[in-house]
Design goal:
It is a single chain. Helix content is about 10%, strand content about 40%. The chain has two helices and seven strands; from the N terminus they run ββαββββαβ. It has a seven-stranded mixed beta sheet. Strand 2, helix 1 and strand 3 form a beta-alpha-beta unit. About 30% of the residues are buried.
Length: about 120
């Protein structure tokens, strides 16, 4: 299991981060997930777009540039939504609702995925 770390403070924000780096995890994402705590998430490398079709829970979404800088934040994205692609984003992080508020994450922060 990977961790999501706030680079500026070397602080772990998510201790339970799944990485969607192959076909099946990218295809399924969080579909079928009934609940997601603020300490859990899924990271989609090499992606600038997500959808919430077939999901049953809302999520917080963070779009990252290639260097891990937060480009855009979406709070409480409801199921069955199709947000527009975020040009300039290189990866997308899906987390439980409340994650952005809890961590005080903002555009310009830098994150990285570690072990």
């Amino acid at each position: 299991m990977a961790k999501l770390i706030l680079k500026e403070q070397n602080k772990t924000l998510l201790a339970d981060l799944k990485v969607a780096n192959s076909f099946k995890p990218r295809l399924l994402g969080l579909i079928g997930t009934k609940s997601l705590s603020q300490d859990q998430g899924m990271w989609f490398p090499k992606s600038n777009w997500i959808h919430t079709c077939f999901m049953s829970i809302p999520i917080d979404v963070v779009y990252l540039r290639k260097n891990g800088e937060v480009k855009k934040i979406q709070k409480n994205l409801k199921p069955w939504r199709f947000p527009a692609p975020v040009f300039g984003a290189h990866s997308v992080l899906e987390t439980g609702t409340g994650f952005i508020e809890k961590t005080n994450l903002k555009v310009g922060d830098t994150l990285y995925v570690g072990d």
